């Protein structure tokens, strides 16, 4: 049997969010792509200074009674500050493409170690309060025992990845076609070259620079394919929340993406970068974030991506209006940087077509035979 992650969502430090668990009860429903008879859950308390107390944790699939999940044989337990903890293995007969529902009961009202996902294609969150912002606590990964090694795809990027509007429907569609599992390593506000900085109340949740957290992703998830979408915040934030001196040149962005590609090459991983989408019209921290200099850098960076990476996906023209500097109306969520839910589904189909046309699944299988 092979142990593999079948669902994973990157957590971050949302120090400015309070009373996320005001009801003391949270329900997460997760799509499970692979059949298995054993699973375990990763409980995440990486960014809190107090223990995460769990009084009850249950798991069930539709039409079945809840099963109690334990840690070291205990159904009532604590996760120490700044740590994660795997639960005990649970015997459960899961079919491919089943849904699992996890109920967490905790007296901790304020929890800062959080994941975030706005799409309901792969993950649905209910916290039994008035919140409906996609934040959730507790479970950041699910592992399963399977008979055959799946193809693993990591989505790595910023909020455009994190929100799940393209990554979640794409993940779900891919699981129907092939034996594939995915992980969402998107962090809202994340930059390729620099950690979070500036005046935003969210700055602490922006996380380390992408070039720095990439190694941890490779080591933990061990993907076969990395779908990379980052760089827009490197351009958007400087002068509109962070110092303008942090604006990178196109050469610096190119050096950063080359570093990630090299790491993938060294680990026999297929690197699939996407071009940086436009953001003209966006207001960040009350300041217009776009200017002509930033646009030149974006265009130069995108040109390099298309010319240099055989599996690159040229997403920017697909989602742009005629000027190629703004998101087209059908993709724009309204803030002129994030895509809408409907737009995300169109992006998912566009990326899927690119992956299929380039035969990436066949390439992964061929690479495994060479090893």
From TrEMBL:
Residues 155-340 form the SGNH hydrolase-type esterase domain. Keywords: Hydrolase. One of its GO terms (molecular function) is hydrolase activity. This is SGNH/GDSL hydrolase family protein. It comes from Companilactobacillus baiquanensis.
